[in-house]
Design brief:
It comes from Pantoea sp. BJ2. By secondary structure, this protein is of the alpha/beta class. Helix content is 38%, strand content 27%. Strand 2 and strand 3 form a beta hairpin. The N and C termini lie far apart (48 Å).
């Protein structure tokens, strides 16, 4: 059986069952465990499936970024716990980047009493909050305005970031997994990449509901991060998959 035929059968089984074990695939297709692993890796690279502990499942694909308004009240407790943990670990007199998003907004709310920070952001809601209610120094990246997410995106925002030296970048994600951060919005990619490139430390802030989901564009591989901060709702399979990485995994809350 050639690889294309195996891929079709794997997709058919996963589509029918949702989750299929590697052991069952090796038995059904009559090939080695390593061959199935390579097949699954290829299909995962295409965004067709997602690896789970001991098996493979159909991919949860995000077709479009939810609006800022839609995300505001989703998983608010988890986002608060993530924000509180992150805030406690920001050294005094740091220059930090807050990526656009409601989880980074939760972190911004924890910084209102700080007057020692320089905060860089591409998020208009975060900028307004800190401008009106904190003593932080503030830089907004500018760039093309994304109305739905109330942020700046694109190459102009990325160029602004590349002129800076940032201590810690707190980067958000609408979907992520062992391969990295994904987004359906191509204009977000250069901003996240620039923030990663100019920062001494990179921290992912994302609640566990977004884990093991994908979108069209890979924004950053997970290996670029020093710390992943999510919540205690992360699945056992997720904890196992992420525990072997070079990053620190934090489950807040």
């Amino acid at each position: 059986m050639i690889p294309v035929e195996r891929h079709q059968q794997i997709l058919a089984l996963v589509g029918e069952r949702g989750v299929v074990s590697i052991a069952e695939l090796t038995e059904r297709l009559g090939v080695s465990h390593m061959t199935i692993r390579r097949d699954v890796q290829k299909l995962e690279e295409q965004g067709a499936v997602l690896s789970v502990s001991g098996g493979v499942r159909s991919a949860d694909r995000l077709a479009a970024e939810p609006s800022h308004l839609a995300k505001t009240n989703m998983y608010s407790g988890e986002k608060m716990a993530i924000g509180q943990y992150a805030a406690r670990h920001i050294p005094r007199n740091s220059c930090i980047y807050l990526d656009a998003g409601t989880t980074t907004l939760a972190l911004a709310r924890e910084l209102l009493e700080r007057d020692d920070l320089l905060v860089v952001t591409n998020d208009f809601v975060i900028a307004r909050l800190l401008m009106e209610s904190s003593g932080c120094k503030l830089i907004h990246t500018g760039g093309t305005v994304c109305r739905e997410n109330r942020s700046s995106v694109g190459e102009a925002a990325a160029r602004s970031l590349r002129q800076l030296a940032i201590d810690i970048a707190f980067i958000s994600a609408s979907c992520w997994g062992p391969r990295g951060l994904f987004t359906p919005d191509e204009d977000k990619v250069p901003v996240k990449l620039a923030a990663s490139d100019v920062s001494s430390k990179r921290v992912l802030l994302s609640d566990s509901s977004k884990y093991n989901k994908i979108a069209t564009h890979l924004a950053l591989p997970l290996e670029r991060f020093d710390t992943l901060i999510t919540d205690a709702g992360l699945s056992k399979a997720g904890r196992e998959a992420l525990s072997a990485g070079s990053w620190e995994l934090v489950l807040a809350g």
